[in-house]
Amino acid sequence: MSQTVTKNKYETTIGLEIHVELLTNSKMFCGCKVEFGGEENTRVCPVCLGMPGSLPVANKKAIEYTIKAGLALDCDIASFTQFHRKNYFYPDMPKDYQISQFDKPFCLDGHLDVDTEGRHRKIRINRVHLEEDTGKMLHQSKTGRIADASYSLVDFNRAGTPLMEIVTEPDIETPGEARAFMQKLRRLVLSLGVSDCNMEEGSMRCDANVSLRIKGEKELGVKTEVKNMNSFRALQRALEYEVLRQEKLLNEGERVLQETRHWDADKNITTTLRSKEEAHDYRYLTDPDLVPMEIPDEWIEEIRNTLPELPNARKERFISEYELSDYDAGLLSATQVIGDYFESVLKIFNKPKTVANWIMGDLSMHLNAEGKEMEESPIKPKSLAGLLELIDKGTISGKMAKDIFQEMYETGGDADTIVKEKGISQISDESSLLAIIEEVIEANESSIEDFKSGKQQVVGFLVGQVMKATKGQANPQVVNKLLKEALAKH
Amino acid sequence: MDITKFSAGDAVKQIKNKEISVLELTDSYLNRIKEVDDRVKAFIQVDAEGARARARELDGSTVNELGGGLPIAIKDNINLIGAPTTCASKILKNYRPVYNAHVIEKLIRGDAVFIGKTNLDEFAMGSSTENSSFGPTHNPWDIERVPGGSSGGSAAAIAAREALWAIGSDTGGSIRQPAAFCGVVGLKPTYGLVSRYGLVAFASSLDQIGPITKTVDDSALLLSIIAGHDRRDSTSLDYEIPDYLANPNSNLSDLKVGLPIELFSESFDEGVKVSVKKAIEILEKKGAKIEETSLSSIEYALSTYYIIAPAEASSNLSRYDGVRYGFRSNDNSDIIEMYKDSRSGGFGQEVKRRIMLGTYALSAGYYDAYYGKAQKVRTMIIEDFKSAFSKYDVLISPTTPTTAFKKGEKTSDPLQMYLSDICTIPANLAGIPAISIPCGLSDNLPVGLQIMADHYGEATLFKVAKELEEEIGFSDIPEL
After folding, report:
1. Which of B235, B321, B371 sits opposite A285 (nearest CB)?
2. Structural domain boundaries enclosing A275
3. In whole angstroms, what is the distance from residue A490 CA to residue A458 CA?
4. Within an 8 Å CB–CB cutoff, is residue B332 touching chain A?
5. Which residue among B201, B362, B367 sits closest to A53, beta carbon to beta carbon?
6. Quick one: B60 exposed, middle or buried, by C-beta within 10 A (0-12, 13-18, 19+)?
């Protein structure tokens, strides 16, 4: 496709601006609770409603989280920072200015590396800063779109939620790379425990600046800003569309207009949202209601000490320490919780590959079916380890374990207890099995001759009969061995 | 006996000794309001019912001895549940606050009786209380003249004995200038000493709440009630409030006084210069060392102020957009039109002028030349004061270049109006405390003397002001 044309003639430059809602208990500048959804305008107060005379007080936890993210992205942490006001009118913004940061952000000059499309890419982070989120417009129409609405309502529950903004340098060269970067960033932020990074609920959002230039040129081309990409897939598709659109314009000798474009996921196109001429002059000024802050080195070190083992480091350790494949190690280190779960099981049952298979197999399948996260798993690491031990000791078969797992998942019970209650332990005791085997052979006398004349498949048939007689509780390997011995003796 | 002549200290004693009841005291002020306020127009709203109910309630219990039971007037840009907070603006005409300002909470705990909300220049922008959408307040000394502003309602109410004491706010002189014009005592405390939580913001880095009273002792008493740290205001100082009521050593022999030459312009009214000079001579006689000094950067204070204050105001006043509360223009076809019409129709002329000035000063391309530069000059002013206070205990100047001017005299010339704050603005830019006390009459109009001290220097201000108050013996009360 035209991808080859792009490769030959143009190079793509992409920079991302990612907004992450922080998982603090209270809002950025007031005591209202941070939570998704809920009845409209129930988590509001004079401060987050911008009532006359109210004043903001910065949330220290949100600052700590931002510094934590900055450290994880290898940023320099500013020793002196300030909040600024970004002035523009919009009905979802109670004060008609947003408290944000301008030239004194908390974190500067970091990077996050990704391995994608066969290359190792270092994506530089320009800055990480902190601001407050806006409310939500509820356009009153069947479609929920502003164009069809006769009026709109505003829900301020979200207004004032701490929002961390991460800005990359224009170092990303393909839409796939942008996607890989976002996925990696999400895993990183999740592992820090500072956000739930839910793209659909909007707790992680991403805008992209895209431009094309002829290969080898120094100046960047005219850029467009693409908004409203609510999933990794949307991000990649929107960028692919936008690159093609710009390329087509340039090939036709036309100019790319500097503007903000909106990704329409239904139509799979980007459309003009506003042009450069309509762009706001934000009239930034330092917020006189909030005093400048000095960030002491001791505090930064304290925060650094709370950093968990970051996903990259953990993945590498899983590969070397547990001999997992790159793929398995990647999945098991994707979030802090999954990695911790895996290692908690290993403490009791130290067979990494088996544990990995059960977590990525049955457990993930069950959780995914219900849209649950690992932390909501009804089976705790200790219980899973208990189940795996029973298989290992031969008390139950792999097949039985699947059923017991299902029951554990539903009831939250222990494998041990379930096995005892239901009496469904595997019969490996040779003397009790021998009696059943003799009964089965007697009932199928012709099989002795068949066996002796070399028809091995008769063994399989007889094993099936024994399993049937024991309601599936016989250990198949032991039955197999005993059956062969018994047939030979007859 | 006219009990409206009592100072706070007198009234407290009388209440304690059961010589008067809180209700009697409250009624006497309410009667006084009834008698004179149609001429003075100090109040936007009088809550006679509420005040009486509160007075009865207090009469039935033990009243806080630190100024409890005293009728107080509140400038109408401070939130008090139960009454609208209008800021004298059409845009907030029917706005009812859902929470009490920090100062109101403190006053409630101190058993205050809230008598009403006083008039001001719209959003505290002005020096004459003529910019009120409810009409001007008149100076009790001459009702053809302005009471000063923006806390003109509070100052006039005290001068006319319509309240025992009052709360004002001061961004560039809005407590001190009207106090000077009305012959009462007005204090702008150190920035951050009194919480701004619940004060409707004009220019956040300059705004400060303070007392307007009959006497210096009353000022000290009211300040000790309202001052103190508040977690809800990040600029509030975490500072232990000293005992302003302790009788200080009245010996002024080691007092060093600086007279900033920039605030003694030749062009000031002769009457003002004479009264201020007499007051300075009193200090000299008491042994204070008086010296002229120069704070050269304060020549730029006025221009600096008129960049910084409008810039902050343009942002602070954005929220009055018709969306959530306040005046909204109806029948607009879209939100942008609604914003425009609500704000055009809701704000008065001076407020619009300052919003435009501030918007311009912050605009891309102009920021460095205006706002950025103003911030730098402000730092120079702070430095100049710092070095002055390394040499002097206090700085003294006239509070205003003139006595109260005639209504309408300066409304058509904003620059002339702005000049009436030339002596008061520097203290706001530097964040230092300053007090204005009456120091005489000129053509039967009061003259104000301003005393400035270093940060946290309120106790020093009270000490010097009290000495002067006693020596000057200003006891005139306007005839109404």
Report:
1. B371
2. 10-299
3. 15
4. no
5. B201
6. exposed
Residue in B41, B75, B463, B466 annotated catalytic: B75
If asked whether residues A272 and A319 sit together in one domain, one would say no
Q: Is the pLDDT of residue A388 over 90?
A: yes
Q: pTM of this prediction?
A: 0.84
Q: Are residues A90 and A159 in the same domain?
A: yes
pLDDT, mean over chain B: 96
Return the C-alpha torsion angle A472, A473, A475, A478, nearest 10.
Answer: -90
Tell me which H or E stretch contains B215.
Answer: none
Please identify which residue in the block is written with the tokens 């520097």.
B426
Q: How far apart are alpha carbons B458 and B468 in whole angstroms?
A: 15
Peptide bond into B397 cis (omega under 30): no
Interface test with B, best of A44, A47, A60, A89 (most B CBs within 10 A): A89
Residue whose entry in the numeric block shows the structure tokens 């000790």: B224
Statement to judge: residues A51 and A117 lie in one domain: yes
Candidate from B99, B233, B324 with C-beta closest to A94: B324
Contact between A21 and A37 under an 8 Å Cβ cutoff? The reply is: no
- Please provide residue A364's backbone torsions phi and psi, each rounded to the nearest 5 degrees: -60, -40
B394's tokens? 């206090």
What is the DSSP-derived secondary structure letter of residue B296? G
Q: How many domains, chain A?
A: 3
Residues in chain A: 490
| Residues B61-74: tens digit of each pLDDT | 999 989 999 999 99
β-strand pairing of B71-75 with B113-118: parallel
- Geometric angle at alpha carbon A175, from A173 and A176, rounded to 5°: 100
- Can B117 be counted among the known catalytic residues? no
8 A C-beta contact, residue B25 and residue B70: yes
The CATH architecture annotation of domain B1-480 reads Alpha-Beta Complex (3.90)
Percent of chain A exceeding pLDDT 70 equals 98
Question: How far apart are alpha carbons A364 and A356 in whole angstroms?
Answer: 11
Residue A14: count other Cβ atoms within 10 Å of its Cβ. Answer: 25
Query: Do A352 and A336 lie in a common domain?
Result: yes
Contact present, B194 and B103 (Cβ < 8 Å):
yes
Burial track A275-289 (b if 16+ CB lie within 10 A, e otherwise): eeeeeeebbbbbbbb
Closest by CA to B69, choosing from B118, B32, B34, B17, is B17
DSSP code of residue A262? E
d(CA B190, CA B459): 11
A148 DSSP assignment: G
- Secondary structure of B458-472 as H, E, C letters: HHHHHHHHHHHHHHH
Does A269 share its domain with A406? no
Interface check for B423 against chain A (CB to CB < 8 A): the answer is no
- E strands, B89-191, are 113-118, 165-170, 185-188
In degrees and rounded to multiples of 5, residue B227 shows phi and psi of -80, 155
Q: pLDDT tens digit string along B409-444?
A: 999 898 889 999 999 999 999 999 999 999 999 999
Residue A156: both structure tokens together: 């301020």
Whole-number Å distance between alpha carbons of A28 and A44: 12
Instruction: Give the residue carrying structure tokens 């109410």.
Output: B157
A393 and A277 share a domain? Answer: no
Please answer yes or no on whether A288 and B79 come within 8 Å at the CB atom: no
Domain ranges of chain B: 1-480
d(CA A12, CA A176): 12
Q: Are residues A189 and A235 in the same domain?
A: yes
Strand partners, B73: B116, B166
Distance (Å) of CA B362 to CA A282, B370, B405? 9, 8, 33
- DSSP states of B234-299: TTS---PPP-TTS------TT-EEEEEGGGS-TTS-HHHHHHHHHHHHHHHHTT-EEEEE--GGGG
Beta bridge partners of B170: B208
Are A196 and A275 members of one domain? yes
ipTM of the predicted structure? 0.96
Report pLDDT digits (tens) over A245-262.
Answer: 999 999 999 999 999 999
